[in-house]
Structure formats: structure tokens, C-alpha cells
Design a protein that fits this description.
The chain contains three helices and no strands. The protein is an all-alpha fold and 80 residues long.
Length: 80
């Protein structure tokens, strides 16, 4: 594996993370458009909302780990 693989992986993770966040934020505001508000109490995530939340957390952690790994691997492959 070369450093190009990890850079490509970083691009893929960032695009997937942006997409998941956009899908998640679209669904969050739809209930309040009809007059409903959940600001007074905490609701439990269920179904697709819970899945999107968990995928967002996974992609965010993968993004951070990969972002820290790229310079370290670059140092290893280049031999700086």
C-alpha cells in the first residue's frame, strides 16, 4: 500500500461524511416545519436516524484517524 491509497481513502471518507451529515440535517428540521418541536425534552433515536447517527460517528473517527495517519505514513514511506 502506498500513501496514495490513504489519501484516496481520506477523500472518500470526507465525501461520505459530508453526505451523511447533509442527509441527517435534512431530516432533523422537517418535524419543526409542521409546528412540532422537540426542544423541551430528549427523544430517543430509532431506526434510520439511529443508523445515520452511528455511521456519522464512525466516519468522523475514521476521518480523524486517517488524517493523523497520513503524515506518519508519509514519513515512513518517504523516509524523512
Amino acid at each position: 500500500m502506498s500513501i496514495g491509497f490513504f489519501v484516496g481513502l481520506q477523500v472518500f471518507i470526507s465525501l461520505a461524511l459530508a453526505l451523511v451529515i447533509l442527509v441527517q440535517s435534512r431530516g432533523a428540521g422537517l418535524g419543526s416545519l409542521a409546528g412540532g418541536s422537540t426542544s423541551g425534552f430528549q427523544t430517543e433515536r430509532r431506526g434510520a436516524e439511529k443508523l445515520l447517527h452511528n455511521v456519522t460517528i464512525f466516519l468522523a473517527v475514521a476521518f480523524c484517524v486517517n488524517a493523523f495517519a497520513i503524515p506518519l505514513l508519509n514519513r515512513f514511506f518517504v523516509g524523512a
